[in-house]
Amino acid sequence: MKFAKMHGAGNDYVYVNCFEEIIDDPVAMARTVSNRNFGIGSDGLILILPSGKADVRMRMFNSDGSESEMCGNGIRCVAKYAYDHGIVDKKEITAETGAGILTLQLFTNPDNRVERVRVNMGKPRLSRGEIPMTGNPREQVINQELKILDRTFHITCVSMGNPHCIIFVDNVDEFPVAKYGPVIENLDLFPNRTNVEFIEIISPTEIKQRTWERGAGETLACGTGSSAVTVACVLNGRTEHRVLNHLLGGDLEMEWAQDGSVYMTGPAVQVFEGDFDPR
Ligand SMILES: N[C@@H](CCC[C@H](N)C(=O)O)C(=O)O
User: Which is the most buried residue in 43, 82, 246, 253, by most CB within 10 A?
Assistant: First the structure.
């Protein structure tokens, strides 16, 4: 199986061009390739597929094999792969995802390789029913108390096609993400589990994020998470609509725009290509 190893702000995946390759069991393949000791090593597996509705289609699998509706850092790398490998030959493309069809704008370097991508991540979904969360399906969860283990947090929950639970903390560098992240991920409150974002506000235009990802653990960045966080920051009166988000693996430029959509701009990097033959 030919693959490319790519990352967006350090959120790394194995990408397979399914215009050419066939993967019979992507769940098992995601677990195998993601293993950092016995596989290629990644946060998961992303398939780049033909689409009847858009220029390309993305399917993404976390390192535990679970499939997610959407991956923000992944979709930027899908766009880079598609342009750099000649699947598309234009700089504004569409991509079909589990969260709908998204539009992406590609920015190239002097060698005509994609370096940065701006993605219209779509409109946030705020009701419990859409996230999904248990309770009244029409209610929104903004700054609601959540008691777990030895702490009381205030959570805001947003879906960007996939679920996110956002918590503001004073010092994100020192926050024990691995202690609280998995407990929140697996609460009965979230029937499909959830991603968990821990956020420190630096100023009305700058924030810092660490992420506990559903199905993958702590990662260096999360694009859908960053989009959900941008919305949560505004809803809680913490920032303006446009913020620079510093994640462990790099920065993302975020905007919750007047048209109701969230826009994310960030890097897309190919690290290497290879052949995988698990014998
Ligand atoms: N890292 C991704 C999100 C990947 C999927 C997530 N773990 C989930 O299960 O929803 C991003 O950049 O958005």
Answer: 43
pLDDT tens-digit readout, 215-273: 999 999 999 999 999 999 999 999 999 999 999 999 999 999 999 999 999 999 999 99
Domain count, the chain: 2
- How far is ligand 1, taken at its centre, from the CA of residue 111, in Å? 30
- Do the domain assignments include residue 235? yes
Q: Is 213 annotated as a binding residue?
A: yes
As for the ipTM of the complex, it is 0.98
- Whether ligand 1 lies within 6 angstroms of the CB of 162 is answered as yes
Q: CA dihedral in degrees (273, 215, 260, 129; nearest 10)? A: 150
Can 233 be counted among the known catalytic residues?
A: no
Flag whether 62 is marked binding: yes
Identify the burial level of 260 via C-beta atoms within 10 angstroms of its C-beta, where 0-12 means exposed, 13-18 middle and 19 or more buried: exposed
pLDDT band, residue 76 (cuts 50/70/90): very high
Q: Which structural domain range is residue 89 located in? A: 2-120+266-275
Q: How far is the CA of 155 from the centre of ligand 1 (A)?
A: 19
Pick from 123, 132, 85: nearest CA to 231? 123
**Alpha carbon 116 to chain centroid distance?**
16
Say whether 222 is catalytic: yes
For residues 201 and 258, what is the distance between their CA atoms, to the nearest angstrom? 22
Over residues 111-127, mean pLDDT:
98
**Active-site residue, selected from the candidate residues 77, 157, 222, 233:** 222
Answer whether residue 244 is part of any domain.
yes
Mutate to test the pocket of ligand 1, among 64, 71, 214, 269 (most ligand atoms within 8 A of CB): 71
pLDDT per position as a tens digit, 159-197: 999 999 999 999 999 999 999 999 999 999 999 999 999
Residues 242 and 271 reside in one and the same domain = no
Indicate whether 279 pLDDT > 80: no
Mean pLDDT of the residues in the chain: 98
